[in-house]
Amino acid sequence: MSQSAAGLTTAPNSAATAPTIAPNASASSAASTSPLTEQDILRIRADFPALAETVNGEPLAYLDSGATAQRPLAVLDAEREFLIHSNAAVHRGAHTLAGLATEAYEDARATVATFIGAQPDEVVWTSNATDALNLVAYGMANASHGRGGASARRFALTEGDEIVVTEAEHHANLVPWQELAATTGASLRFIPVDDNGIYTAADAAAIIGEKTRVVAFAHVSNVTGFVAPVAEIVELAHAVGALVVLDACQSAPHRRLDVVALDVDFAAFSGHKTLGPTGIGVLYGRRELLNALPPFRTGGSMISTVTMEGSDFLPAPQRFEAGTQPVSQAIALAAAVRYLDAVGLDRIEAHEEHLAERMLAGLAQIPGIRIVGPGLGVPRAGLASFDVAGVHAHDVGQYLDALGIAVRVGHHCAQPLHRRLGLTATTRASAYLYTTEAEVDRFLAAVAQVRPYFGETS
User: Where is the composition biased (Low complexity) (predicted)?
Assistant: First the structure.
């Protein structure tokens, strides 16, 4: 037990507990690009209780981390310890628990900010990444309708302005921009993809022009695993004075993300894909932009002065955190990023790239399989989406589930991309730091039996 500065005796914070990984996978080796060893992965897996479960009488092979990741004990314990010992409303009370809760809440913000190379006042807590992207889009809509004063005019859009996305976007990074275009009169344009679902910097240069005001795109595609040419797109956008909004949902959990080095204006990612809880997301924004962007969700906690005639808003990030904040979730997410840092993001990325190559090579040997996305030897995230000739993706998923293998099926919230590829749905297997080669091989062996099982032999 420890004595806090506020005078309350508290239990040790398990959020600070290091993962039970091998010594060579510690934070001190984070710069290493060598894949995690088999021993490392086994020790990591011991931190994830869900991975010991059985499904339909078979050991669980969890290959759906691209949708939501499992959580290690350090994360589960961090949230539980806070709720047991320090739970209170933050920024609202003068009592000891309120002080402890506020300190932990803001410490979590600082931890996550450091994780992405930002400053604490450039990190806004949201309910998820979708909420974060909507915050930017609807803030710009408010600015376009005269809210926010002179400082917000940089965000105002009107007829003749253009918003640029890509044809590969998740709906969360497409629909908000469709709505912004509809409410402001701006035009929505998209960077097209090829038959593999990928695009180049040259493709982006053909679309981004003098009328472009916003460029929003995914760092890593949740369908193809394609890694976008971020530097080139940012350069194109900033050359014409456009803002860059990065969907980092499939990058922040898996590879080192430095928003300042990438030079993006806004970035969003979710807690539940980053070993953290649901109900929390992160919006990064440049300090000067966040302080100029009008809020779109208003109420308590985000105001400085309220009269019956009007209100003044606090500076960022509080101006975007109306109402009761996700306190325990923020603390759990901070524990999650500490866990990732302890393992080493570079080692995680190398491990996932190795597994992706193994998946791609194996799938390519199975008759009737069409893989979407970059081919062998091209950088991609640790996921593979594919179509099985003659068998619907949902049937593929059910067959694999019967064998204890969890994958994702459907259009993965990317209908335009699937339409461009001539597909209604795909099956997606996604790996993470706790995925083993044996699980990948088990998955490949099962996929090889799908078409024979459903009578598709041609």
Answer: 8-33
